[in-house]
């Protein structure tokens, strides 16, 4: 008797394991229940090669399933967790492995405290993450020495095991991409297995609290590993897999604020500082660490939420928290994390919310609603006021010493570029590609920044401005955007998601020629919910 018919739309993990598919999204139930990585429903993973990498991955899944099944049968879930290193011999130069060899190789138990030593490979990857990956993600984050610098990050990595392994997975991917041209096939397979080993451990550890254990430090549960997995999925080109992780992190952040941060295990003093936006200079080290940690994560989530809303066509999910987060006295300063000042981010969030409101309204309501017209007028006024108050070009042309200072501290440049984005974005939401001549001054200012004033190291922070102005590019400027999105520093081997942007712009340019009434909503259909980072 033949086996059950299986759909051809199952996740890649289940296809490799030749199991019946449930096709749940974003991760299938079978993979989650067995604590193995669900590779989703997008393009075929690079390890699916009908060769050594695929066999090694299959052996890895077999070993994990065997251990997971035994642990469930024995009721193993206790306060301390066992992490099995699923390293095939491919990582040591051999590709002939059995699941029993994988299971027995270098099994170690992590007790409630993190181990006091790291092996050489973990140490190398950890420092790669701290020295290169994190600065690549947040090039403008330079915390004050009086607030402890980046010490909170090292502390968080060493006490939060899922985050630790997520960071190692990201570092392993980065190392593999950088060295891909100098490694032979066997070494590349070994590097891929190493990367997937860390990722699988991270996801398995993230799933453990749902089995009944409760972490001792609630702050560690702010889905910090989820943010790193989000970036891992994004950088490795896993299409829209990042959305599920961002959604989970945003939900957790919202729930925390609804409970006044009581469910994050913060010290009372830390909660007071966060709610009253107090300075940290004279606080104890543990209080500083908690507060700086939470402020950084809050700023990161607010920014990712705003950027994702631009191409999703929705209001930011944290929009109701913006008045407090962007208040004058707020200690959350996006400029210190992503280089863009709060006032611009707030207006971009308002425009995204306006777009969502307009999409929910009928055409007649959009044209006649006093509330919507008033919102458009107020946003426009705030953008113009911000540009006039902090005119980048007036400052730049006033004094060569100031110009040199701006090159070393490009926050004003980035803020000005995003202010131009806000102005263009508002136009696109209200009028689409019609009457583009009304934003000629905005367009010219943005192109002047892109062509004349952006240092090489700053250009990767301009992905969103480059995309939006690329969408309305004049014919003579299209090659500039083609070059920007097809070469370093915007494009790099570790930033696979940016490879999608230029083809999307080409589609928008082609559609503009054939459609006279193209709208921003039409562009979003072509953009496929990309994240502009």
Automatic annotation (TrEMBL):
SUPFAM superfamilies: Zn2/Cys6 DNA-binding domain. One of its GO terms (cellular component) is nucleus. One of its GO terms (biological process) is positive regulation of transcription by RNA polymerase II. Pfam families: Fungal_trans_2 (PF11951), Zn_clus (PF00172). GO terms for molecular function: DNA-binding transcription factor activity, RNA polymerase II-specific; transcription cis-regulatory region binding; zinc ion binding. InterPro entries: Fun_TF (IPR021858), Zn2-C6_fun-type_DNA-bd_sf (IPR036864), Zn2Cys6_DnaBD (IPR001138). Keywords: Nucleus. It comes from the Eukaryota. Residues 5-49 form the Zn(2)-C6 fungal-type domain. It is found in: Nucleus. This is Zn(2)-C6 fungal-type domain-containing protein. It comes from Tothia fuscella. The lineage of its organism: Eukaryota, Fungi, Dikarya, Ascomycota, Pezizomycotina.
